[in-house]
């Protein structure tokens, strides 16, 4: 009988010791699992205005807590209007309205929505376009991003388009220069901080323009004196915006004058009607004589 009791006590003691070691590990596992569950997700867009055939990339821009899983499932309410791939690649279809929903894989109750409007393109025709033009002093970050993305022109149809370009340019720069002194820590800025960054660029001048009537087209790395904008069909049937400009005259330097080692970054902006911007497929620059 005593042997039986001793055996039972021995087994219980072993079990108790095992529980002491297992419980902290289990608690740590549960704690790590909780940290991996997101409580808030913010996408890089809230609204999009597109035309049939245009594409955009949607992604998770901000997540809370910071170390939570950013993996989401993408769903389109009307795939015929706008279809989205598992990687967040959005393509506009027929005209209409729809919503794109991102659902967290770790928390099915957590969702973020993007409103998408796909408009029918106006009838393409050859015409003389009314426009407003201005040459701007840009900065390396904005110009380099356009160059890296091989963007001949950048079209802004809303305030959010402008903010998105600023964000993407900074995020791209951070990817290549995250160990520099400028980025003391990872970019995780709120909307107020992004607007502050916008205020340091020439794009802030256009943040208050009437995007219901006009679009902004920016040509980075161009300091061009534009004199006219006309639309013409090319041989393939695409409508090109012919931009005629006067080349800048360059005067020879006098002997003994050195060229300063300063690199300038320029941009030329066009404000045109939404109708004209929507029907132009691409832009072509043509120099004109004085």
Mean pLDDT rating: 84
Order of neighbouring strands in the sheet with most strands: 2-9-8-5
Strands, count = 16
Integer count of domains: 2
| Spans where pLDDT lies below 50 across 5 or more residues | 25-30
User: Whole-number radius of gyration?
Assistant: 28 Å
Structural class: alpha+beta
End-to-end CA span: 116 Å
Helix content, binned percent: 25-40%
Q: Helix count, per DSSP?
A: 5
Shape: elongated
Q: Main β-sheet, in a few words?
A: 4 strands, mixed
The fraction of residues assigned to DSSP E strands is: 25-35%
Q: What's the SSE pattern?
A: HEEEEEEEEEEHEHHEEEEHE
Task: Considering the chains and any ligands shown, give keywords for the structure.
290 residues, alpha+beta, Immunoglobulin-like, 2 domains, 16 strands, 26% helix
Can you give me a brief rundown of this structure?
By secondary structure, the chain is of the alpha+beta class. It is built from five helices and 16 strands.
